[in-house]
Amino acid sequence: MNLEGNFFVEKPRAAVWALINDPDVLRQAIPGCQSLEAVDEGYAATVTIAIGPVKAKFNGRVKLQDVQAPESYRISGEGSGGIAGFAKGGANVRLEETDGGTTIHYAVDAAIGGKLAQLGSRLIESTSKKLSGQFFERIAEIARGA
């Protein structure tokens, strides 16, 4: 599954870059995130999400690659949700300075397996779009308060 989009934040690119690289901000912005800790070249995370009738707690790792501060990076990760299955994927994130702020461009690729994969691609895709939207809306809220 692939999703693309963009989101506008009323802050300079350097400030947005700092936000999307701050573990405390990421913990607040990732829907269902219970913990996010810096480890090695990335983060260890615990996230609980519900897709249709299946609710799962995922434990996994997230790492940043191809970092070109303050312009872009690739964030990738994978996690296990026990009997619910697994999820893995990533996002290419690019920050573009625009009038009055910064536009965040993103392209997400994700794959799931186990019980979650049996739910159907439409439900999974709509949930993924919703969660992506919530993440970027939360980043914008945090930016407005920062």
UniProtKB/TrEMBL annotation:
<dbReference type="InterPro" id="IPR010419">
    <property type="entry name" value="CO_DH_gsu"/>
</dbReference>
<dbReference type="Pfam" id="PF06240">
    <property type="entry name" value="COXG"/>
</dbReference>
<dbReference type="InterPro" id="IPR023393">
    <property type="entry name" value="START-like_dom_sf"/>
</dbReference>
<protein>
    <submittedName>
        <fullName>Carbon monoxide dehydrogenase subunit G</fullName>
    </submittedName>
</protein>
